[in-house]
Specification:
single chain, globular, mainly alpha
């Protein structure tokens, strides 16, 4: 583990060096293949955050990023509108089961 990895892993989440979500996404955009961020628009990001919330509350917290990653893999080949509809349906089903 490098010294930067140690510093990042031990960083307090309420630390003042945190950037806002949009700044973080812009930083991430520079490291991903062209068009990746645009492929997951605001609506899709919102529903993925709902999925993460459900996963974190129904299981251990680390289930949230794993769940969103797996859903991304599962639905990535679909056209954007269909992908969004399928993720919404999955989230709605999981939310009902949680409640």
């Amino acid at each position: 583990m490098t010294s930067r990895e140690v510093r990042v892993s031990q960083q307090d989440p309420s630390s003042s060096d945190q950037v806002d979500v949009e700044a973080w996404l812009e930083e991430l955009r520079a490291r991903l293949p062209a068009g990746t961020l645009e492929e997951a628009g605001p609506e899709e990001r919102a529903v993925l955050l709902d999925l993460a919330r459900i996963a974190a509350h129904r299981s251990q917290r680390w289930a949230a990023p794993i769940s969103t990653y797996l859903v991304g893999i599962a639905f990535a080949p679909l056209p954007r509108a269909e992908r969004l509809d399928r993720i919404r349906a999955l989230v709605a089903q999981l939310d009902v089961e949680a409640g």
